[in-house]
Amino acid sequence: MQVIKDKQIIDDSWSYIADDAELKDGDISVSLARWKNDKQQLLHSNGKKGVRIGPADSVDEIAADLKDIQLVELDFPAFADGRIFSHAWLLRGRYNYQGEIRATGHFMRDQVYYLSRVGVNAFSLKKSEDLPVALANLDDFTVNYQKSIL
Questions:
Q1: What percent of the chain has pLDDT over 70?
Q2: 106 — pLDDT class (breaks 50, 70, 90)
Q3: Where are the alpha helices (DSSP H) in 8-144?
Q4: Which InterPro entries match (predicted)?
C-alpha cells in the first residue's frame, strides 16, 4: 500500500495492530488504549512505534510519550468530525511533535490542504487511485489568510 508523506507518494512500512491481535515486530501502530495498556512491551519491541488517536481521545494522554512515538495516526471515523484538526494542531503547536502525523479513515481529499495547515504531513487513503488527486489538493491555494502551524 502507498501513502502520501511530505508531498510524495511512498510505500507504507506501517501496520496497524488491532487491540485483540498479537503484537509483532516492525513498524506498528496501536490504539491509544493499547498503548496505555501495553506500553512497556511496545517500547521493548523492534521497529518504530505509532499510536492511533480518535476524535474522542485526548492528545494530552500521549504528550509525555511523544519522544518514543514516531507516528501519530489521526483516525477520522466520519468526515464531518473536526476534532482531528485540533489534535493535529495540539501535537505540533503545544507539544512541538516533530514525527509523522498521518490522517487515516474517512476524510475527504478536499480536506488534505487544510489538514496540512494544522500539521498533518501524511495521508492514508482507502483507494490508491485517489493518491494523485489528493497530492494535487495539497497545492489547492497559493494565498493564505492565516498562518500555518508548520
A1: 91
A2: confident
A3: 32-43, 83-89, 112-117, 131-137
A4: UCP030820
In a domain, 23, yes or no: yes
Residues paired with residue 53 on neighbouring β-strands, in sequence order: 74
Q: Closest by alpha carbon to 100, among 17, 14, 30?
A: 14
Note the pLDDT tens digit of each residue in 2-59: 998 999 999 999 999 999 999 999 999 999 999 999 999 999 999 999 999 999 999 9
pLDDT at 143: 47
Residue 144 lies inside a defined structural domain of this protein: no
Q: Give per-residue burial for 121-137: e unless 16+ CB within 10 Å, then b.
A: bbbbbeeeeebeebbeb
CATH number, position 130: 3.20.20.70
Range of the domain at 51: 2-137
pTM: 0.89
Overall number of domains in the chain: 1
Radius of gyration of the chain (CA): 15
